[in-house]
């Protein structure tokens, strides 16, 4: 059920992205980056509260790998989660293509200011998001359900700053689904490697800072997973 939930969650995320891209197409560009970022952020909030208590609402292979590397997610489930996330993204892109009569190329994430700029902005944005997620996981009891809104807001902000440079992916499944549907894998390596490196780096930095500073408060127990009520990144 956890794997199915990941597929459903990624489907919801990608279908909403297809919807806002279709709106941009039909309104001749009147729906812009701000609306796109808001859609991404709000959809993440919806997904977190929908499937968080079931699967942890990773909906991102980079997040899954980062949690697995640092022992917060079982390795045997990593391939299943990544497959489910990619499957959900691909089927959502197919659905968006036929429902909205959307050209699949429009859903692709492409470097808009060169490959190097796209790589670094994707890496840095995912680094920041994962650092935030790791921090929220660490202090889940004190943050509680607010964490869903915090993560969604962070995603929206990240899309705003990455959109003009890379298209604002930060999610290998999001980019891979569109690449599979359009069968265009140009520069896909950027959207697989950069978010993965960024997510692992963000988790690594927080892990390092946490070991250097251990607060006395029981509210920040390192054994607490994010949104125990609505999210469980350990998914055990």
Automatic annotation (TrEMBL):
<feature type="transmembrane region" description="Helical">
    <location>
        <begin position="116"/>
        <end position="134"/>
    </location>
</feature>
<keyword id="KW-0813">Transport</keyword>
<dbReference type="Pfam" id="PF00230">
    <property type="entry name" value="MIP"/>
</dbReference>
<dbReference type="InterPro" id="IPR023271">
    <property type="entry name" value="Aquaporin-like"/>
</dbReference>
<protein>
    <submittedName>
        <fullName>Putative aquaporin NIP7-1</fullName>
    </submittedName>
</protein>
<dbReference type="GO" id="GO:0016020">
    <property type="term" value="C:membrane"/>
</dbReference>
<dbReference type="InterPro" id="IPR022357">
    <property type="entry name" value="MIP_CS"/>
</dbReference>
<keyword id="KW-1133">Transmembrane helix</keyword>
<feature type="transmembrane region" description="Helical">
    <location>
        <begin position="7"/>
        <end position="24"/>
    </location>
</feature>
<feature type="transmembrane region" description="Helical">
    <location>
        <begin position="188"/>
        <end position="209"/>
    </location>
</feature>
<dbReference type="InterPro" id="IPR000425">
    <property type="entry name" value="MIP"/>
</dbReference>
<feature type="transmembrane region" description="Helical">
    <location>
        <begin position="78"/>
        <end position="96"/>
    </location>
</feature>
<dbReference type="InterPro" id="IPR034294">
    <property type="entry name" value="Aquaporin_transptr"/>
</dbReference>
<comment type="similarity">
    <text>Belongs to the MIP/aquaporin (TC 1.A.8) family.</text>
</comment>
<keyword id="KW-0472">Membrane</keyword>
<dbReference type="GO" id="GO:0015267">
    <property type="term" value="F:channel activity"/>
</dbReference>
<keyword id="KW-0812">Transmembrane</keyword>
<feature type="transmembrane region" description="Helical">
    <location>
        <begin position="146"/>
        <end position="168"/>
    </location>
</feature>
<feature type="transmembrane region" description="Helical">
    <location>
        <begin position="36"/>
        <end position="57"/>
    </location>
</feature>
């Amino acid at each position: 059920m956890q794997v199915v939930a990941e597929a459903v969650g990624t489907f919801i995320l990608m279908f909403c992205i297809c919807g806002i891209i279709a709106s941009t197409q039909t309104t001749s560009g009147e729906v812009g980056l701000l609306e796109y970022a808001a859609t991404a952020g709000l959809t993440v909030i919806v997904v977190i509260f929908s499937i968080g208590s079931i699967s942890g609402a990773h909906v991102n292979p980079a997040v899954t790998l980062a949690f697995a590397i640092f022992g917060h997610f079982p390795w045997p489930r990593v391939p299943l989660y990544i497959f489910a996330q990619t499957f959900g993204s691909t089927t959502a892109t197919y659905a968006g293509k036929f429902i909205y009569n959307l050209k699949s190329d429009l859903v692709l994430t492409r470097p808009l200011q060169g490959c190097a700029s796209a790589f670094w902005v994707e890496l840095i944005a995912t680094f920041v998001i994962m650092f935030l997620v790791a921090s929220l996981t660490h202090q889940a009891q004190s943050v509680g359900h607010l964490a869903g809104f915090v993560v969604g807001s962070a995603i929206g902000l990240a899309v705003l700053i990455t959109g003009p440079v890379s298209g604002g992916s930060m999610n290998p499944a999001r980019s891979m689904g569109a690449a599979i549907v359009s069968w265009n894998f140009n520069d896909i390596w950027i959207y697989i490697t950069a978010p993965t490196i960024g997510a692992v780096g963000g988790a690594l930095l927080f892990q390092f800072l946490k070991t250097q500073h251990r607060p006395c408060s029981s509210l920040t127990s390192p054994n607490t997973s994010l949104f125990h009520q609505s999210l469980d990144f350990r998914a055990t």
